[in-house]
Design goal:
The protein is 16% helix and 37% strand. The chain is of the alpha+beta class. It is globular.
Length: 279
């Protein structure tokens, strides 16, 4: 098989998505088309791994205050398994970049509704100051917003259901009734769902219920081999040389592999590996 054929098999197609809060200048190695405000870069899920979606998100302004339903809630509405749990790894951040997740106290539905209507919901969120290496898991039903000046890698259940509760006056549809029906007005459990990653070393980031995710650096240890005993899986290089089936997968790309045995990397490389969890 030729090199071009192998690359076409392992590299996921990329889709650049314009957003009103996107950026005209993207962090390397990405380049936005002239005049375009790119907010997201999607990697089309392969047929072998339809459960997961990998994105890069780049912001020059705040994203909407939003919430996602769970699988149980979408199935109850006859929509199938369309819930969304997601996680963010911050890879770049301006000095005062923040992520808004959960509330500073318990909030009932009617208070949330009033706050969404008059904009106070933005200030009710807890805004966490972030820098590269911050990792957050966002369970379904968690009200959240990504602030300006941040770039993240997002790994999520492959669902496009997002309920916007507040959008700073932008002329986009809100989904107040649907969103409030699935919103938890709770304090975000930072101790449970947040990690501050060390600069080096392999770190287990997510261990279910819908997918597992690790940041890999250095030699594969027994813990990593035990967590990914068989494929298929997704590979997201952050820096350094990572190869699948002998072909280089550059930073800014996402590849699929049949298993860890197809992946090789230099000891200083940083990369993510993700895999759906079978029920």
């Amino acid at each position: 098989m030729t090199q071009e054929a192998v690359l076409s098999e392992i590299l996921l197609p990329i889709r650049q998505v314009e957003k009103p809060w996107g950026c005209e200048v993207l962090p390397r190695p990405f380049v936005a088309p002239k005049g375009a405000r790119i907010g997201e870069i999607w990697f089309e899920p392969p047929a072998q791994l339809p459960e997961l979606l990998v994105k890069y998100i780049f912001t020059s302004d705040k994203l909407s205050v939003q919430v996602h339903p769970s699988d149980r809630q979408t199935m109850a509405k006859g929509l199938g398994r369309q819930g969304k749990e997601e996680c963010w790894l911050v890879i770049a951040a301006e000095q005062d970049a923040r992520l808004g997740i959960g509330f500073d106290r318990a909030v009932d539905t009617e208070t949330l509704r009033a706050a969404a209507l008059d904009g106070r919901i933005e200030d009710m969120l807890v805004w966490h100051k972030v820098s590269p290496g911050d990792f957050f898991y966002i369970p379904a039903n968690t009200v959240h917003a990504i602030g300006a000046g941040v770039s993240v890698i997002e790994i999520q259940q492959n669902s496009d259901i997002t309920y916007r509760l507040f959008d700073y006056g932008r002329p986009r549809e809100l989904h107040l009734d649907e969103g409030l029906a699935v919103s938890l007005g709770e304090v975000y459990d930072l101790a449970r769902w947040h990690k501050r990653l060390p600069e080096t070393g392999t770190v287990a980031l997510v261990d279910g219920p819908y997918f597992r995710l690790d940041r890999v650096n250095g030699v594969a240890d027994q813990n990593l081999l035990a967590r990914y005993p068989q494929g298929p899986l997704l590979v997201v290089p952050i820096s350094g040389l990572v190869m699948v089936r002998g072909e280089t997968v550059p930073a800014g790309a996402c590849a699929k592999a049949a298993g860890l045995e197809e992946i090789s990397w230099e000891s200083d490389a940083l990369w993510l590996v993700a895999q759906p969890v079978s029920e």
